[in-house]
Design brief:
With 310 residues, this protein is α/β, with parallel strands linked by helices. It has a single domain, classed as NADP-dependent oxidoreductase domain (TIM Barrel, Alpha-Beta Barrel). Helix 5 runs parallel beside helix 6. It is globular and about 50 Å long. The protein starts with a strand and ends in an 8-residue tail after the last helix.
């Protein structure tokens, strides 16, 4: 396992993130986490909404500091309480304290805003996160499932007000969902953020046989994935995960495993090198277009190094 710096920080994280959402018990999670650690993995991602924090905390009890532990808040903790959801200061404080108790730790390496809350000013969220950093309860902040403009606004505000910026972005990314290439991925690269790509297998669809495709577009993508997998003598899942790493070094695939065998298969994707021709074939099958304004900007302006005169 190789390591990357987490965004603009000095924190070293493994190039594949282990998601804890599928863990159903300590007995199921322990061998998976052990196998991940043995392979060199150190970045484990959970959330209060997943109901797996206690499981992760129990498995990591005597080795917690060797791992980069991340959790999230935003979604409702109590549907009878209107203030038990959202990104406001009250919910952040209560959700964070509860997550720390369940995980059995004094701090989180990364605390993600689970999704954008349009009802809470981003200034309030940023200042509350910064207070938690200064208190030593979280070390780094990240944001998940938010528009590029709000993340850019947040990090610009953080820069000018000397608050803790978002070092990471967590968003869905797969051959069946390439939307982040329009705004989110370029924005993250511009701010030096790491991108934890969830659902790199499109919730398992990209590991299924072609016959399981639900429509013509999905059938075309699954066929391309299967063809490339056969040519390289690897699995379709490995091809799909490997592809998420091709376009940008900022991307860290986030995989959820329900068994050691599944994790082992996913880890092998880190050794898969996709030939340029295979990448082109896979991307052509998706029918994806970046759209305006990127497609509208002349190529010579998109690549300043090619400009030779005024």
């Amino acid at each position: 396992m190789r390591y990357r710096l987490f965004g603009p920080t000095g924190l070293r994280v493994s190039e594949l993130v282990l998601g804890a959402m599928r863990f159903g018990s300590v007995e199921q999670a322990r061998p998976i986490i052990d196998a991940y650690a043995e392979a060199g993995g150190n970045f484990i991602d959970t959330a209060d909404a997943y109901r797996t924090e206690e499981i992760v905390g129990t498995v990591l009890a005597d080795r917690r500091d060797r791992f980069v532990v991340a959790s999230k808040y935003t979604l409702s903790r109590d549907h009878t309480d209107v203030n038990a959801a959202g990104n406001h200061r009250k919910n952040l404080r209560l959700a964070l304290e509860a997550s720390l108790r369940r995980l059995g730790t004094e701090y989180l390496d990364v605390y993600w805003v689970h999704c954008w809350d349009p009802h809470t000013p981003i200034e309030e969220t940023l200042r509350a996160l910064d207070d938690a950093v200064r208190a030593g309860k979280i070390l780094n902040a990240g944001i998940s499932d938010a528009p590029a403009w709000i993340v850019a606004q947040a990090n610009t505000l953080a820069q000018f007000r000397d608050w803790t910026p978002f070092a990471g972005l967590q968003v869905p990314y797969s051959l069946l969902q390439r939307d982040i290439e329009r705004e989110l991925l370029p924005m993250a690269e511009a701010f030096g953020m790491s991108v934890a790509a969830w659902a790199p297998l499109a919730h398992g669809k990209l590991a299924r046989p072609v016959e399981a495709a639900e429509d013509d577009r999905e059938r075309a993508v699954l066929s391309a994935v299967q063809e490339v997998a056969e040519e390289l003598a690897v699995t379709p899942a490995q091809v799909a995960i490997a592809w998420t790493r091709v376009r940008s070094r900022t991307v860290l695939p986030l995989v959820g495993a329900s068994s050691v065998d599944q994790l082992t298969d996913n880890l092998a994707a880190l050794e898969v090198e996709l030939p340029a021709e295979a990448v082109a074939r896979l991307e052509s099958a998706t029918g994806f277009q970046v759209g305006f304004p990127t497609d509208f900007i002349p190529a010579e302006l998109s690549h300043p190094g090619q400009v030779t005169g005024r």
